[in-house]
Design goal:
- The protein is built from 13 helices and two strands, in the order αββαααααααααααα.
- Helices cover about 75% and strands about 0% of the residues.
- It starts with 12 loop residues before the first helix and ends in a 10-residue tail after the last helix.
- The chain has one domain: MetI-like fold (Orthogonal Bundle), CATH 1.10.3720.10.
- By secondary structure, it is mainly α.
C-alpha cells in the first residue's frame, strides 16, 4: 500500500509575522545595498585621498584623519563639548518624555489635543518651518538691535540670577556639585528639551497603551499602590521602548542641525578633511549607542511568550 502524502503544516503565527516583517523590510534592504552602500564606500574612500591641482587623486593614508584630530584645533574641542551637552540632554529628554507620556495616558478631557500640542515641535522642525523660524529669528534680532526699549542684557542677567539661586540652593542642601551642574544645565536647555521630546513621547505613549488593563486590575486587587504599580509593572514593561527612545535621542541629538559639531564640519573648506571629520563623528555616535545599549540591557525587561 502506498503511503498517503504528508500534509504540509501551516506556518506558525510567529513565522507568518516574520515573513510579513521581511516583506516590509525588503524595499529598504534593496535600497541600502544598491543606493546607499556605493555612496558610503565612495565617502569612506575619499577620506584616504586628496585631490591635486590637476584633479588627480593622491593616496595619503590617514593624513586627513590626523589633520582633523591633531592639526585642527577646534574639531576635538567641539566634539568634547557636544558630548558633555549630551550627558545632560539625553536623560532629561527621555525622563521628560516619559513624564508627559504617563500624564497623557490618563483618561482626561481633551488628551488628544494635548498630544498634538506636544507633537507640534516635531512638525515645526521640518525644513520649511525651520526656514520660517530662522527668518523670524533674524527679524527679531534686527528689531532688537533697532529698538531701545528692552534691554536683552538685563533679561539675561535676570535668568543668570535664577540659575545662581538654584546653584546656591543645592550648595546649602550639601548636594554634590555634579548633580547641581546637571540640574542647572537642564534648566538652561529646558526649551530645547521640550522641543525634542515629541517622537519619544509618542513611542513611550504607545508602549504604555500596549500594557493590558487586566494587569493593573490584578495589582489593584492585590492592594498595590499607584507608586508600586508604576515601578513594578509599568516601568519594567515599557523598558524596551525606553531603550528605543534613548537610542533615538542619541542619534537625533548628534545629527541635529543645531549641533555645534555638525555646524563646524559644514564650515570646513577641505572636502576630504571634512569627510574624515564626518566619519570620526559617525564612529563616536556608533560607540556611544553601543555603550548606551550595553548599559541599559541589564535593566530592560522582555516579556517571555510561550512558543
Amino acid at each position: 500500500m502506498s503511503k498517503a502524502p504528508k500534509r504540509r503544516r501551516a506556518a506558525s503565527l510567529d513565522k507568518r509575522k516574520a515573513m510579513g516583517g521581511w516583506l516590509f523590510v525588503i524595499p529598504f534592504v534593496i535600497g541600502l545595498i544598491f543606493i546607499y552602500f556605493p555612496v558610503i564606500y565612495d565617502s569612506f574612500r575619499s577620506t584616504f585621498i586628496q585631490v591635486a591641482k590637476d584633479k588627480q587623486e593622491i593616496f595619503v593614508g590617514i593624513e586627513n584623519y590626523q589633520e582633523a584630530l591633531f592639526t585642527d584645533p577646534n574639531f576635538v574641542t567641539n566634539l568634547i563639548s557636544g558630548l558633555k551637552d549630551m550627558v545632560v540632554d539625553i536623560p532629561s529628554i527621555v525622563i521628560f518624555s516619559l513624564f508627559i507620556a504617563v500624564i497623557l495616558n490618563q483618561k482626561v478631557l481633551g488628551r488628544a489635543v494635548f498630544r498634538a500640542i506636544f507633537f507640534i515641535p516635531v512638525i515645526c522642525a521640518t525644513g520649511l518651518m525651520d526656514s520660517v523660524e530662522e527668518s523670524a529669528s533674524s527679524l527679531n534680532d534686527y528689531m532688537g538691535d533697532q529698538s531701545q526699549g528692552i534691554n536683552t542684557g538685563e533679561m539675561d542677567d535676570g535668568f543668570s540670577m535664577s540659575i545662581d539661586k538654584i546653584t546656591s540652593l543645592f550648595e546649602s542642601m550639601q548636594i554634590g556639585s555634579g548633580i547641581a551642574e546637571f540640574v542647572v544645565g537642564a534648566v538652561n536647555r529646558v526649551s530645547g528639551i521640550i522641543d525634542r521630546c515629541g517622537v519619544q513621547m509618542l513611542i513611550l505613549l504607545a508602549a504604555l497603551q500596549s500594557i493590558s488593563p487586566a494587569i493593573y486590575e490584578s495589582c489593584s486587587i492585590d492592594g498595590a499602590t499607584t507608586w508600586e504599580t508604576f515601578w513594578k509593572i509599568t516601568l519594567p514593561m515599557i523598558s524596551p521602548m525606553i531603550l528605543v527612545a534613548t537610542v533615538y535621542t542619541v542619534i537625533d541629538a548628534f545629527t541635529s542641525k543645531n549641533s555645534s559639531v555638525m555646524k563646524y564640519i559644514d564650515s570646513v573648506e577641505q572636502v576630504n578633511v571634512q569627510t574624515a571629520m564626518a566619519w570620526i563623528y559617525f564612529s563616536v555616535i556608533i560607540v556611544l549607542v553601543i555603550v548606551v545599549v550595553i548599559a541599559m540591557r541589564a535593566y530592560v525587561f522582555y516579556q517571555r511568550r510561550d512558543s
